[in-house]
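A quick aside before the break. I want you to see a complete sequence-to-structure record at least once, exactly as it would be stored in a machine-readable document. Don't worry about memorizing anything.
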Amino acid sequence: MKNLNKGEHRMKRTAPILITCLSALCIALIIMLLLNRTDRLAEVLTLDDVVELSDRGLSLSWSDFEAFEHEDVGTRQHPVWEFPIAEPGFSLSIDGNSINEPPANILLISEAENSVEVRTGDVLAFIAAKSTDEPAPEPTLPTPPAPPTPPAPPPVPPAQPGPEPIPTFSVSANPSSYDVSAPHITVTITNTSQVEGSFGLAHRIDRNANGRWEAVPLDIVVPSIAMILPAGQSATETFSLHQDQFAYQPGSYRIVFLDGLGGVSAQFNLTGNPTYSVSVQTQSLPVTAEYITVRITNTSQIEGGYGYGHRIERFVNGRWEVVPLEASPVISIWMILSAGQTATYNLSLYQEQFDYQPGRHRVVLVGVAGEPSAEFTLF
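That is the input. The structure line, written in tokens, reads:
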């Protein structure tokens, strides 16, 4: 009877513990189900969504895409979001330095690995071009009748001379590594064949993004000049990186030749990471002011370059909007700035193109990583 009382006493002690453990397990299962339910509520991005979002232009941000199903495949220093798209043959990728800064790239990508920048490119034309790439189904043909017995072959004619030899080329970047702010690269082109050859200088620049090559969105105008290169000889040419059109980041790049060189390419690396800050000399100006004075400072420890490319934005209804200036305020001049050095220049507000209203405005430096900006007020 004494032993039975001890067993009953132990059961009374362990029963609350078992009930507590079962309650915790139930709560954990409920939380897991809720999390799975949340994941299932994420919407899959569609091409209609992409077209609608593209209308927002340069004001697009990371937050505009948070509600859609995606995978973060980047790092804390370089986030990369990849989105599946409901329609087959397309995907979307966003990358940048931080989700707290404007994205560096928002690209709609086809299965052929072509891409278009959603904020500035013609998304509808890109989608339409993809639809025309689909091959037409092959027609079903009736089974042909058995061919008649062929006649005896004619005598073999004498051997004819072979085709004319075709010139071949190789290209290499020299040197193979440049500062990320370099205005241009130097490429050596060599005729590797035994005959004289000619070629043009049409080309594009690609960057290696997550293990695949993507075209850098540049507007490159190349003069129609045919270059003649004798067998075994080399020529050296300089090619602009068009820093005023694209904010390059450190990484692996290549230049691909398109005219007469058979698509050969030369790979090169961009290193370093110069950073800049932007400020204005007077932060409060009358609404009729003709220009503002801008200061650009190289805040890094290395020499770097920048262009005068910029845009003016105004703060309306809680968000920044681009001021629609008809004449582009971008000046295609490349400037070199030593570490810690500051440059100052006057920036026109183009009063004849836009009816400014009192309020918050800012100037944004484009063609530079992070697109630094400086705010000013018109009163």
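Two observations worth writing down. The mean pLDDT is 82. The first strand starts at residue 71 and ends at 72. We'll return to this after the break.
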